[in-house]
Amino acid sequence: MLTLALIGLIGGLVTGISPCILPVLPVIFLSGGVQNATATATVHKEQNGGGVATAPVETKPPRSRPYLIILGLVVSFTLVTLFGSLLLSILGLPQDVLRWAGLIVLALIGIGLIVPKFEHLLEKPFSWIPQRRPDANRGGFTLGLGLGAVYVPCAGPVLAAITVAGSTGQIGLETVVLTSTFAIGAALPLLIFALAGRRVAERVKAFRKRQRGIRITAGIVMIALAIGLVFNLPQLLQRAIPDYTSGLQNDINNSEQVKKALNLGGLENDQNKDLDLCTDGAKELESCGKAPDIKGIQQWFNTPGGAPVDLAQSRGKVVLLDFWAYSCINCQRSIPHVTAWDKAYRDAGLQVIGVHSPEYAFEKEPGNVKSAADKFGIGYPVALDNTLSTWTNYRNRFWPAHYLIDAEGTVRHIKFGEGDYQTTEKLIRELLTKANPDVRLPAATDTADDTPDTAAITRETYLGSTKRVNFAGTEDYTAGVKTFAYPATQPPDTFVLQGDWTLTSQNITPTGAGGEIKLNYRAKEVRMVLAGNGTVTYTAKGQTKTVQVNGTPDSYQLLSTQDIEAGAIDVTVGPGVQAFSFTFG
Predict the structure, then answer these.
(1) 3-state DSSP call for residue 583?
(2) What are phi and psi of 139, to 5 degrees?
(3) Strand, coil or helix: what is 15?
(4) In terms of Cα–Cα distance, which of 229, 384, 417 is closest to 300?
């Protein structure tokens, strides 16, 4: 129990100093120092003739206010994360009701800070409380509750374990301890900012004298945060700022002690415990338990009105679940087979469902996924599993991954990764025939299998600091602005950098006029995942070419040959371009 508490606290602290905390900092700082400027205390002075004059008296912000804000945030985050989905399911309410309630609370408090008369209306429901003058603004606890309902911390192994436990209803003392300590850890940096705001309000005379302006500013910032959260604008800020905590996150992610301690039963549950009965890529049908639910889906594409697909309502059909991510080259090579099966066997009773489980942050953008699905000719339903809820419920670990489910709802085949498409199609045909012996199946598809010999080609090479693979330089490859130089020698299947670069957890981009990359590879095809606006120039096989990069992340082909070859590519990435990875075929 103590280990879990420590893991939760450390995980929360790392999250609390990460870029995902930045959007709420102005609200926390200003709220910690806001005084009650809607009323003024009075000083009575005897005047000639017995009159009374009034004069404003400076007031200090309530000293408990920062603590109450953070207490409200911790309580709200813990309850919403662990019990929110369960409560809403019981009440039959949409899963985003609590988030919208939190946004409304933030907006109303913001308006109240700007318009005192509106604040008085907000205070009326609290008039039964025995106090001289009820003031919701002084407490701060309500503000904390609102923030806790909308604050979504950066993903990590601790939060993943909490989310899984909450979504599956497996909430015990260990999960509560982990969630509470994580929330406290994440809130501690916020408390520092709230206390700093209070101290400024107490010590800086200009701050005290301009409380009306400070209140209006705080209200505007609070409303702006609520509006920004509606349109997911904080995500743009988080992507624009280098992830300076990536090294710490990586240490937590790779810690065996953390992995062992976080196995709270969330990865294995009653729905997925029998999936181990299936062997990867078996040649014959197996029986691996009832198919786990598709859950936690943010949005659906290619369904009537965006309606969700329920596996329980697909009984009588053979279902193929395809876990994929649109920038993953392995998935890109697999998709033609899946789309071919969908077209060939849909009328015979096959239901294909694509579960898009993002590998990169940019893959969470619905517009990016929709564009990719259209580009790949995907006409079957696609679920946006941005929180990896369904991915986790299937205990999945691979892109792509295929789960074949029979007409009775039982998982009969699992295939991780590319290849062996003939076996998967053979088993699809067997299940269709079992479901309907009178079915007339078309001829088997003949889509070319472009699966490379992974032992003969360079492995996918990520360039982000937390996913870095195959880097052969001597420099410290962590997030931040770094200067690199080519080493004297470079091994096969590696890359090195030269020049000034900005490294983030997801990608790298040149800091100055341009940065250079030298890649040694073995492959028939070499591609780069790039984004932004600018040019990438590369030299390979004595030829120099330029690629124009414009827009969201996409995969760009650098070269293609008839056979697998060993070679080298010199790449110059221009300013404004983000490089995510090299992929090979």
Answers:
(1) strand
(2) -70, -55
(3) helix
(4) 384
Q: The tokens 């920004």 sit on which residue?
A: 228
The Cα–Cα gap between 520 and 570 comes to: 9
Q: How far apart are CA 181 and CA 185, in angstroms?
A: 6
Q: Is the per-residue pLDDT at 94 higher than 80?
A: no
Read off the pTM: 0.50
| Contact call for residues 428 and 403 (beta carbons, < 8 A) | no
Query: Does the bond joining 400 to the residue before it have cis omega, within 30 degrees of 0?
Result: yes
**How many whole angstroms separate alpha carbon 182 and alpha carbon 557?**
43
Angle at 492 between CA 510 and CA 517, to 5 degrees: 10
Task: Answer with the residue of higher pLDDT: 169 or 529.
Answer: 529
Tens digit of each residue's pLDDT (9 = 90 or more) over 293-348: 998 898 999 999 989 998 888 888 999 999 988 877 778 888 889 999 999 999 99
Q: Is 441 helix (H, G, I), strand (E, B) or coil?
A: coil
Alpha helices (H) in 231-304, listed in sequence order: 233-240, 246-253, 256-261
Q: Using DSSP, state whether 143 is helix, strand or coil.
A: helix
Question: What is the Cα–Cα distance from 165 to 154, expressed in whole angstroms?
Answer: 17
DSSP labels, 512-536: SS-EEEEEEEEEEEEEEEEEEEEEE
Q: Are strands 401-405 and 382-384 parallel, antiparallel or unpaired?
A: unpaired
Q: How far apart are CA 288 and CA 290, in angstroms?
A: 7
Angstrom distance (rounded) from CA 464 to CA 508: 6
Question: pLDDT-based confidence at 257, cuts 50/70/90?
Answer: low
Going by DSSP bridges, is the β-strand pair 382-384/350-356 parallel, antiparallel, or unpaired? parallel
Give the strand pairing for 495-503 and 543-573. Answer: unpaired
pLDDT mean over 150-163: 62
For residue 509, the model assigns a pLDDT of 92
Pairing of strands 577-584, 461-462: antiparallel
* Separation of alpha carbons 326 and 343, rounded Å: 20
Structure tokens at 8: 């939760």
Unique residue bearing structure tokens 């209200």: 219
The two structure tokens encoding residue 455: 């032992």
pLDDT band at 38 (very low <50, low <70, confident <90, very high): very low
**What is the spatial distance between Cα 247 and Cα 504, in angstroms, rounded to a whole number?**
10
Please give the pLDDT value at position 77: 82
Token representation of residue 526: 């070499």
